[in-house]
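We close this part of the discussion by returning to an individual protein. The sequence in question and its structure tokens are set out directly beneath this paragraph:
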Amino acid sequence: MQSKTFSRTNSSAATLTKNRTEESITPSSGMCVTCVDGCIGMCEIGKSAYRGHEVIYPQPFGVITTAAEKFYPVDYSHFNIMGTAVGAHGIEADSDKAIFPNVSLEAVFGHDRGIKFRYPWIIPGIGSTDVAKNNWDGLAIGSAIAGTGLTIGENVAGMDPESVIKKGRVVDTVDLKRRVRLYQDHQRDGYGAIIVQANVEDTRLGAQEYAIQELGVQIVELKWGQGAKNIGGEVKVRNLKKAQMLHERGYVVLPNPMDPLVIKAFERGAFKEFERHSRVGMVEEGSFGKRVEELRKAGAKYVFLKTGAYRPADLARAIKFASKFKLDLLTVDGAGGGTGMSPWRMMNEWGIPPVELHSLLYQYASMLAAKKEHLPALAVASGFTFEDAIFKGLALGAPFVKLVGMARSPIAAVMVGKTLGRTIEENQVPVYVERFGNTKDEIFVTAAELRRELGDDEFEKLPTGAIGLYTYYERLAQGLRQIMCGARKFSLEHISRDDLVALTPEAARVSGIEYVMDADREEVEKILKS
């Protein structure tokens, strides 16, 4: 960690760049202390001298997910979870009953409490990027059999070359239909949900109406950005005809794929990728309310909103609009995360960091609750990966936060599961893994459970990416149950803010969580004076 700056500039694995003098770097600029004539340009400045705007984005595109490497002054590691030796909440205070396998992780929410998840987390938006499309089997099937939520992100219908669009509206799709059906076909006992998100272009194309009326989707989500960037979504396109198709469908495509000079430059290899950009939305209360009503009239049973790390006034608008128009879930995504090709410097340097943003969310929710105004279920997202952070996210926002959003870590679990499946088929299981065995049943610790629950035929059809995600979720679930048991909280509604302490005065000031040396002060005095 750099001691004098929070940001790392001018070199990163994300942009495939590095400094020549790796041990001697000017903190303010990130440049080598001695920049010499004759260097081939390994740093971000040097690479920008010959690849220009391409270096704005993380690379190699299509096979990676990315997140910021900036150090924030306060983060979730600055809090610790409190345990106790006394009592139990949500179960009888009996040592034979208050055991961690008896902790319930079921989350129920929605205006009619009709949405139920086995676990309190959701994947809050995996869209049209290659890394999402190439791993969708694992994401959809794994989420469905685990009984958790999965959101189909923006631009999926618009990016699909096989989508049928008539008079500017989607009437049939291949990719979106496949993504929805993969989840629906593997959903068990009504747990979990598939959600279809929309941005400006999706709304113009009528993608959500199509999903509701033709694919049986019950939940749709409006999108006000994400924690990775404050502009619309981007992808790279390596095919000229597809770039031209997207231009014709109304996307911003750079450089202009219809320009004869651009076409010639592409064909001779001067550049190899077009950029497709989405537009930024223009939020206004009247049009927002109108859109919510349109979706409900189209048949949506539940309406969600996702917002990103915008300024505090925008967060206030998000929760107020979600309250006024009686939405079912509001997801708030803190700065620094992403799954696509968000501009790298933007991902590092814009927006409100997670602890600060989620603390503001709690403050605003408390204000509305005090006025007895409607509050949707809340979800927080940004960099959550393991059970300790999941507990902290739920506790920091208790009692309003019902879910934690995760994207990069589930994708990682799917990719590892998929890779292991390939090595099993090729009889080339890595030595690191081979110590557990050479088959699915030996390598994946949940295989026996899944085989018993699904039957041999269904189990054999599961892609190993899905098994990887299911197994990762199983680990999170057991770990979270253990943490909750230690806090003596045996169901989610009992998690509270006093289950945390802040380890620094600054973390306490930002969050409103008690500083560790002040925790339980009144109770301590009563005990010692008794």
